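G.,

No rush on this.
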Amino acid sequence: MKELVEVIAKALVEHPDEVSVTERESGRDLIVELRVAPSDMGKVIGRQGRIAKAIRAVVKAASSGIDKKVSVDILD
């Protein structure tokens, strides 16, 4: 999941070298944390959170084969 979020985020932002994605597991949950440059935050979130929702939907669809709940957190 980490690689998927990283590819999507790097395609959206102006500073792809500042994209950082980390994964951490907490029981049956897998949390993917995305960090981008402050100037790119709006591009990753989108108007009314539409792009963030789309990223989460793609990750959810990609994770349907694993037995974990995957969530994407966008951090500043």
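When you get to it, here's the other one too:
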Amino acid sequence: MINFNVPPFVGTEFKYMQEAVENQKICGDGPFTRKCDEWIEHRFGVKKAMLTTSGSSALDMAAFLCNINPGDEVILPSFTFSSTANAFVLAGAKLVFVDIRPDTMNIDENRIEDAITDRTKVICPVHYAGVACEMDTIMDIASRYDLRIVEDAAQGIMSTYKGKALGTIGDLGCFSFHETKNYSMGEGGAILINDVERIEKAEILREKGTNRSQFFRGQVAKYNWVDFGDSYLQSDLNAAYLWAQLEVADMINENRLATWNTYWGALKPLADKGVIELPTIPEGCIHNAHMFYIKCKDLETRQAYIEYMRKNDILCVFHYVPLHSAPAGAKFGRFHGEDKFTTVESDRLVRLPLYYGIAASDLNKIIEKTLAFFDSL
């Protein structure tokens, strides 16, 4: 069976995890956590990065740092994972979903402004498949209406928009290092902070509401409970696993891009015939090959394709069910405007296996069976 995903592993993970054990510092903010934080800061030019227990908890922190009050509204796409929405629900916000662009599956920047009310506090663009949203337009809207921007860049590490790393453009950004992501520590994430005034509050929030970080830096004589907080610190064992991959981040990125480009070249003839649609990468965007998807003619064709591939021992999967159509979506939010593309495009999309180190023979089989299925139509 060709799996849809295999977590990245480069060979030095166990060595570094053993070092973490020998350091006798396996809780949060150990040596490997600091290495990862500093790597993110230096590589992407962000003022502060902090590893978290998950991409979801990074989003939770971002929502709390936006000072949301009950009844405030957050604008986001419906085509995203539940974590994007849960973070703002936890902070007390009302969700306002808007339609997506069919070319990138990202939030339609031209639908945001009409959804703004006097309760709107935050815009949360989600960079789907590691392809950037149209951030210039979104940042302009945020500036004119004095709104905060939280970038859900869970899939976006190593991707850029007009030379800027995803997650570093808005006020706050969030990465995920889940096992399905380009770089992984099993479960984990990071929050990226551009506004220096939020750094101290973020440290307190992440450290159970205490000023423990200031204490360790010698800024206070003792630490105390000073505000609301929770435990968002990632274990240094997990950070050690991640550090092994960040050391060779470019190698992993190039390997994934090579697979993505192979898919593109092999399947383009089907797209040229109008049988399928391939991903769109807008000008000014550099992506990270987080995923390769195709769009079938309709839901029936997609389901038939997934079943055909399964019978040939290849796991291909659909992706998000739009949040506004889910029970919790109706409970915690509303869809503003027309759902012209969100549902119909999500019904057509199917993801192909893509992971670091996928065997050439497996890749060739996936392409061969995909061509055979659509040729049979």
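The chain is about 40% helix and 15% strand. The chain has two domains: 13-246, 249-376.

Enjoy the weekend,
O.
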